[in-house]
Amino acid sequence: MVPVLSMSQSPTPAAPRSPAVDEDAACDKSPSSKLGRLPPQSHHASKQIPNAGLSHTATPAPPPSPKLSSPAASDAESDTEPDENEPSLTRITPPPEQKFENYDKGLKFIYQWAKEHGVDYTKATCRKNKDKILYKHLMRCTRWGKLNNNRKLTPATRKRFKRGSKKLGCKSSFYYGACDPSAPNGAWGVRRRGEESSYLDNHPPVAVSSALAGHRRRARQEESTLKILTDHAAAGVRPGASIAILREADRDCPIIAKDIQNLHQQAHTAQLGYDGKVEYLFKQLDNLGYWWKFRADGEHNLDALLLVNRDCFNFFKRYPDVLLVDCTYKTNAYNIPLLSIIGHSGNNKAIHFGYALIQGQDERSFRWIVDNLRALLEEEHILNELDLILVDREQACINAIGVSFEEDKH
Fold this sequence. Notes:
Layout: E1 4-7, E2 90-91, E3 99-100, H1 103-116, E4 121-128, E5 134-141, E6 173-178, E7 188-192, E8 200-201, H2 213-220, H3 223-235, H4 239-249, H5 257-272, H6 277-287, E9 290-296, E10 302-309, H7 310-316, E11 322-328, E12 338-344, E13 350-357, H8 363-379, E14 388-392, H9 395-404
Parallel strand pairs: 1-14, 11-14
Antiparallel strand pairs: 2-8, 3-7, 4-5, 5-6, 6-7, 9-10, 10-13, 11-12, 12-13
Helix pairs in contact: 4-5, 8-9
């Protein structure tokens, strides 16, 4: 029988990041399985707007000043109390009327102007000329329209109560179109509408541009910003550090941590393809040349995983006389035991060649690890060269080794 030496204070090697650990932790978090769930067997109507061409250069007269809500009401209106649910109107002048060299430059100016004034605009409707080429947009405030509550939900019955609609029925709008409708590739310009309501917002401007999703989306799509975020996602940089770097270059950068987290999730989903996370892990282990074993429970949840690096194991085969088995705890995203399997070289250097993730430090889990490890040593014809196994005072591990190596005599 292989002697088992128990140490009260054995050096615990630093636990590397497990390949099975995913930052988003999207696997099953039930108490019965924290590692993940095994995949099933597989083979692998727009409203017409009046013609507002921009071929003329005359500037229309501004509409009369609308009557805005004011706390000081006249005596004639004091008899009717204002509706508390009705939003107050705020006069926000649309972007100034001017011409631009092309479509892209004008659109960039509109979005920058909106960002500086605490609002945002979207392309609500479009018009095409007789050649079926776009030549005009009706730009509306992003909070125009109203929510179609077709299911008649109330705050009490709505499940996603934190995802309320941003639509407030805002009527602020203007035209953005080609100066010559027959030549949309040429100059474009901004033209204000004649309606009085197009100058009114029923909401105040936001204090910071990050409160508007459109500004954050356009900031993420900039080539330089997208490259930084992509590189950071590949390197595992935290969202907070990425934001700090972006705001060193542009202090008004509207991107928030949630945007970066969504970008990481999109990249991770694209990397997985049609595979589940556990299935993708197994494919990666095969590609990297790992020797691995797994165990699943009755509900097809991943219960234990044993990994052996072949290069490190081949080095261990030169000095297979001593084996150290030690377990760390709460050193990974799932707060489950990580078992390290370590050998030593001829110059007394540690060889970390095996790792295992198990559900708990019980004799059943240790027995499964030790049995598979013994089978690997026997397969590589070095079982008889093993003289000593070092463990700490984990009685469950000692019992498992005693049962598995009971018939081995050296």
